[in-house]
Automatic annotation (TrEMBL):
Name of the protein in question: NADH-ubiquinone oxidoreductase chain 2
Residues passing through the membrane, by range: 12-36, 60-79, 110-129, 149-167, 198-218, 239-264, 270-293, 314-337
Family: Belongs to the complex I subunit 2 family.
InterPro entries (UniProt xref): Complex_I_Subunit_2, NADH_UbQ_OxRdtase_chain2, ND/Mrp_TM
Length: 338
């Protein structure tokens, strides 16, 4: 039964990856839409578990929100084909198609579903939702950009992603709101070039993967579980490096792609938006440092029945090693820019 379950999961994972390739390599908007639908129908079996009410609720919410976004996208694709020569409607259609794709990726102001759904997912499914599921909508968005509309969306993503994480106790939500904030950087990079977006997305996925797999191996879901980490200082040091890297603090590697985007935005005279994005990154660093300070400095409860069980120690040491690579970010930055 266990092997059969694993093979089923692997089958849906395979479809999930290929649906993305179908969408981004399609010659028509209908092909892109079909790829998005296959992607939706392959992700739902991965997140739904019959013995877990939270994941069942999350899969239903995900299906409903994604279906609404798909219906909107299909409607405006058809409208675009009918009103091909009507240039007055072109601006409106581009905004509505962009909005549908932004809803697909969980961007503000359509982010209402994102934190609620991620609360019912496992760490591995959360990682897929925060990384892979953003690829298709982001690439499709680059085909039909509305620059003025996107500048407003970037600003909203940056502000809500930073402020939304201030009052959270759940680690999954603490990963979700910075993910919304990072969407502002991704949208900025895709307005510059697709190559820069791929560069930023690779670094972002690398940092998120380390965090998600670390929390998965320690079976952690809430901040108060960090107060029991008086056993292993390697865990704390690794969390310190990864949190600060994810926040974009120099000299860590997370600052490197942000630095490149800041340079490009300043060259294009987008000063005000750059200023807001940097300020919001500082707010994110504030709540990361607050968590790290409390996990490092507070008096710990030494309970005999409370033990941190690490699921796979070899993989855990490998992820610790990867997190220390982040310190090499300073060397990379000096090499590229000086």
């Amino acid at each position: 039964m266990f092997l059969m379950l694993n093979s089923n999961k692997m089958f849906f994972m395979f479809i999930l990856f290929f649906s993305t390739l179908i969408s981004i390599s399609s010659n028509s908007w209908f092909g892109c839409w079909i790829g998005l639908e296959i992607n939706l129908l392959s992700f739902i079996p991965l997140i739904s578990k019959s013995n877990n009410m939270l994941s069942s609720e999350a899969s239903l919410k995900y299906f409903l929100t994604q279906s609404i976004a798909s219906i909107n996208l299909l409607f405006y694709i058809i409208l675009k084909m009918i009103l091909m020569k009507n240039f007055e409607m072109n601006n409106f259609i581009s905004i509505m198609m962009n909005s549908s794709l932004l809803m697909k990726m969980g961007s503000t102001p359509f982010h209402f579903w994102f934190p609620n759904i991620i609360e019912g997912l496992s760490w591995f499914n959360s990682f897929i939702l925060m990384t892979w599921q953003k690829i298709t909508p982001m690439i499709l968005l680059s085909y039909y950009l509305n620059n003025k509309f996107l500048l407003l969306i970037i600003m909203m993503n940056s502000i809500i992603g930073a402020i939304g994480g201030l009052n959270q106790t759940s680690l999954r939500k603490l990963m979700t709101f910075p993910s919304i904030n990072n969407l502002s950087w991704m949208l900025s990079s895709i307005m510059i070039s697709e190559t820069l977006w791929m560069f930023y997305f690779f670094f972002y996925s690398f940092m998120i993967s380390i965090m998600c797999f670390m929390f998965y191996m320690m079976n952690m879901f809430f901040i108060n579980q960090l107060f029991f980490m008086n056993i292993n200082y390697m865990i704390k040091l690794s969390l310190l490096i990864n949190f600060l890297s994810l926040g974009g603090l120099p000299p860590f590697i997370g600052f490197f792609p942000k630095w490149i985007i800041i340079n490009f935005m300043l060259k294009n005279n987008i000063y005000f938006l750059t200023f807001i994005m940097i300020m919001m990154s500082l707010i994110m660093l504030f709540f990361y440092i607050r968590i790290l300070y409390s996990s490092f400095m507070f008096n710990y409860l030494k309970l005999k029945w409370m033990k941190i069980f690490i699921k796979n120690k070899n993989l855990f040491y490998f992820i610790n090693f990867l997190s220390f690579i982040s310190i090499l970010g300073m060397i990379l930055e000096i090499f590229f820019f000086y």
